[in-house]
């Protein structure tokens, strides 16, 4: 880095709310990329937009703290999401094998059965809301299944999580009454089932973690932190990503027909949609000291946001940055993060998405957005998502 480069003035006061993200993320992220590799937004937060810049932040957890970034998210520390080194390594050593692909494989049959059941409930109707009838329901069912909890608890869990995510404001410590109420209700529910599983273990992930002994044994607070992390990181993320995949397939019928004819395309198409539509588009950290990123100095104790949507469209890395292009599916997008905090549930998330798309296409191969439907996202937001996605499709002939 030359002296001249380090002295460039950093763009400041960038107003994110005016970016055209709601309708056009290609243009929205491109505009932010063009502001510069690092800029300060109107809340004073530092945003990093290049692939290399984001990688640098991910790979230096001693300079960029997760613990301090997630401090404002309730009284229980989220494990391992909000843990810095060296403690973080202990949690991942225990958790990584539990979420490894071979463990995800074991759930395939049951998860497929549940996805099929959800699709069967509307396949005869000729229309559905891909978000409310499917994408919002399935990830919560997966969570309940993995934790050995009754599927009947699905709707109340979804409502708590919806309130918490809708009312959390990134970069502030504003806690509304309904957010506190939903957080407390979810915490009480979690504490109760952790205690129940400790007394009567079953054949589920939670019981497996509770069975660890010696230095691997977890306290109740640690278990609460892990449940919080799973709920925070593993439900709305899959829901929202599924929404983006269905939107892409509904509006690109030629690609969809190819995917149905060539099932091996399902994974790379999902991967490319994940790249273009990172559902957690700005991942936070707090600097532990003054630090230089892409030639700009960010002071100690600053909130830094890794703009995954911009970095995933960096033309230095992705030759066709704004298009779904299966040739790019292995180029290493950043939607699942990277470094020590790389998504623990990425194998599970990919499997969930594949199962849902395959079971949907098995029953409903032809579909499109309902006339007049124009799904949009709310922006800026911690997790970006379509709230509804009305689809129409031919009713299958009676047997
Ligand atoms: C498409 C869906 C998903 C996306 C896009 C996603 C994205 C991410 C990202 C970007 C991170 C890194 C956060 C950071 O660096 O601060 C992360 C971490 C994490 N994710 Fe996911 N995630 C998804 C699904 C899941 C699922 C299904 C689970 C369920 C277990 C999960 C559990 C976690 C956990 C526990 C962490 C924290 C890991 C750590 O701090 O070591 N995620 N995820």
Characterization of the model:
The chain is of the alpha+beta class and 399 residues long. It has a single domain, classed as Orthogonal Bundle (Cytochrome p450), CATH 1.10.630.10. It is 48% helix and 8% strand. It contains 18 helices and 10 strands. The chain has helices spanning 3-6, 25-35, 51-58, 66-69, 87-98, 101-106, 108-123, 130-135, 137-146, 154-167, 177-199, 205-210, 220-234, 236-251, 253-261, 266-276, 308-311, 346-363; strands at 38-40, 46-48, 64-65, 127-129, 282-287, 291-293, 296-298, 303-307, 368-369, 390-392. The strands form 3 sheets. A 5-stranded mixed sheet has the order 1-2-8-5-3. A 3-stranded antiparallel sheet has the order 4-10-9. A hairpin with a 5-residue loop joins β1 (38-40) and β2. α10 crosses α11 (177-199) and α14 crosses α16 (266-276). The longest helix is centred in the middle third of the chain and has 23 residues, at 177-199.
